[in-house]
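In the previous chapter we treated chains in isolation. Here, by contrast, the input contains two separate entities that must be folded as one system, with a combined length of 225 residues.
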Amino acid sequence: KAGVTQTPRYLIKTRGQQVTLSCSPISGHRSVSWYQQTPGQGLQFLFEYFSETQRNKGNFPGRFSGRQFSNSRSEMNVSTLELGDSALYLCASSEGQGNTEAFFGQGTRLTVV
Amino acid sequence: GESVGLHLPTLSVQEGDNSIINCAYSNSASDYFIWYKQESGKGPQFIIDIRSNMDKRQGQRVTVLLNKTVKHLSLQIAATQPGDSAVYFCAEEKGGSYIPTFGRGTSLIVHP
């Protein structure tokens, strides 16, 4: 079956703009989690959505938000982009809530200039 | 494995050797631990997990050991292959939080 699909793969934005990233989970998976990966901070948890509800949130400012649709597809939005938001954004899906045997997508590489 | 700045600790092994990757976790309340493998240009891949009521868990060619006394986790890879070359992360979760905290990773290089 198809894996986790993230679009776009690469994105360049200007400071102050906003961006929306998309994640399509594995069919049947109801949980989608988002992560930010940078060389300086490593892999950090952003938030998790399960059954269209945000269930958990990491320590990121309110500029980072997300949502999940009834088909479990998820989007994350970053508003008022800062240079420090440049990162690889990963999403992962799992059947149930939490990270048990989560499957990751290849990520969206966001560059803020 | 903890990193210093941008540089990950690196473990270099010969093909066929056994590899041991270590991870020190920070929260004594953590009760769920996961190891991930990340190859260049790809997202992390789940390898194996363990809950705090266990000390050891085995998978295919991999074993995870948990020492709660010293808050230490290790991943053992048997008969390491060139395809095992990747960055390996550990992650910890505190009881029912579903919020993982990741280690900085260890780069494993397998020489043929």
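The radius of gyration of chain A is 13 Å. The first strand of chain A starts at residue 5 and ends at 7. Compare these points with the single-chain example from earlier in the chapter.
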